[in-house]
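Troubleshooting log. The previous structure file for this entry was overwritten by mistake, so regenerating from the original sequence record. Sequence copied from the archived sheet and checked twice against the printout by T.R.
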Amino acid sequence: MTGSSPLVPLDRVPWRVRTAGPDGRWDPPGTAALRTDGGLLTRPPAPARSAHRPDPRGRHGHRARESYRVEDSRTDGVPSSGGRHAAGDPGDGPPGERPPSDDDDRTPRRGRHRASGAHRRAGDAPPAAFAPPRHRRRRLPAGAAPPLGRLLVTAPGPQRHRPGGIAGIEWRVRDLLAVLGTFLLLHRPTAGLVRRFSREPGAPLTAVLYRDRPFGGALPGRRPSVVFLGASLVLVAAAVVLRGLHQHTAYELFMDEVQYADVANSFVEGNGPQLFDAPFFLHPPLAFLYFSRFIAAAQTSMTVEFVLSLRPAVLLFAAANTALVVACARRVTPRWAALVAGAFYALDPFVIRFDTRLMLEAPMLFGVLAGLLCLLLAAESPTGRRRWVLLVAGGLLWGLAITTKTNAGLITGLPLLIMMVCSWGLRRREAVTVFGCEIGFYLCYVTWTLATGRFLGWADQTLGGVVRAIGLVKETGFHSAKAPSFTSRIAANLTLTGTSYVLIGAASIFAAWFVLMSWRSLRVRGAPGERFADPRDLGGRERTPGEGALGLMACWIAGVLGAIGYTAGLGELEEQTFYLLAVPLSVVTGLLVTRVVRARRWVAVAASLAVVLVLAGSAAIWWSIRSQTDDTYSRFSAWLFATVDPKTTHIALGDHTAQFVMPGYGVFPLRDAQDPRASNSRYGVVSTQLSELGLADLTPETIAEFDRRYPVVFVAHGRTAGDLKVYDFSRPLDGSAPIGVGPQG
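Regenerated output below.
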């Protein structure tokens, strides 16, 4: 390359020009560089290279220096040299002496690549106090070029082929992040937020959260205080009370609860995973095995009372998860911030809604949080047996999570893939070990299906679940054809989970900001106190305490946001999906409040007031829900068994939940006004709320027609089902022929 021109114009003011070398790194502060007024900032002379140490760069070092020169455009008539001087060009040096050029690799050089000085453009010899620069050894992949985002501020150089395999993927990911960071730098409102860390690759990761203050998280060797342990136990007890009070009447019976109770009952009977006498492999069996421990005797059929009696089984996970949220947040935040994170989890209305019912989300997140805690402990542990034991334990616990519910693979598998591709958070071999332990634990379950002859059933149902999860088939969730819109459900639930939406929104924005601020410092290796072997790793400086745990946390958050973002856009988006986001964001709130209190005083005061208001709002929502009853199916079941003879009566059902808790009754679908006569059903059961939401086959217009034609013999009102009505088709009000009169066959 014979010459180069800057991509951006340089103003002639005595400011310093910083340039990037071929490894994409900025010149370290305090070294000499070109000033835009044509002068030079001097530096001490460099020690000469030994004659016995040949230049390891050779021809490639010269190409790098030549390709990344940034030269000021000349207006005084002196031509700009491209680093090469024609033979016989005397320049301004002594006669008969060749001026120093870029091809002379025998000259000792120091530091990274710099912009060309005025003496090099004019052909003068360099000043005695200013030795030609010597390039630091670099360890880029063979044939790799610097990230694209850093080339945007340098002169274009030769484009080499990117390496293949994992190294090539890593550099492409870095390119995308660099371009994103460059655009944010050009955006004036956000430039001030990202300038410091995006322009200083060697900035400590702890500075993103703590600025210039010491790291406040728990480090190895520090014992927790008695006050902190006592406050954590108070939070755990409060979480159990908040979920256990009026547990049977505060939330309506959910259809999935009936199915999970029946699968647990099949384990008590010794039949393995079965749902209503059919093999069930849509979800792994660990949670059902746990629920079966709370069944004293096998049941012949499902009833509302039996299902509700199993709800206290999830209270144990509510207590354990609260303690784990506090423990995980404590690894990277001060004590008070970890307690704030635990309080958000304990009071979150959306989380309480699932922790109160017989659902799989709380047991699944137990394995996720326990595994994350082990990995956070390993990240700050020195390399040795203890570190590897913690890594293996974390992988096994994450395997426990996906063997409880396979959706846990979204928020555990993607973070590990990020670590394996980019070598962030953990070394590649460590991330591969954790991933192997996670998959190995799940393969034990697959091996059991092979040994018991259930593999074909597992493969069929699991493949169907995977196809739905990735969005190829959308039978359920907000993306399905009959489901209500996502925004309409958000608006309808504002009074029930409004503070949860505030928490999820604020924590998601901060989590994305935290990952963006941290991505150039995520590549960490070695134990605390060790120097990095790779020059790209934070400039060769020593790690600061807490960087390992913060890097791992940033990778986990990035994986969670990416997985939930894909599910919301292309996958099977259900209400339960946001539980996978709400609990991790409870940990993120500890990071959020830690960062906010280190901002300006008025920002810290406003944020503290917002935290108090959100917690108070969550407590008010909890009291509003617990002071009311939402148990329409429980009251309907009591009326049904006391009034209707199952041997002589058919019943038409306009919703899908009641069919699972009516053992012995002949039930038929109710989709329009003609179905009762076709099935000879005497009674019809409808839910006004489910019909309005499109979650039932019956339309609101058909319900209005039933109101005009038939009397209502039972009605129960609830928050979830609306009005659960029972019509008597044997006594029509319009004089039409009665339906379902007399004994039924």
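Strands lie at 274-275, 278-279, 650-653, 666-669, 683-687, 712-718, 722-728. Archived copy saved in two places this time.
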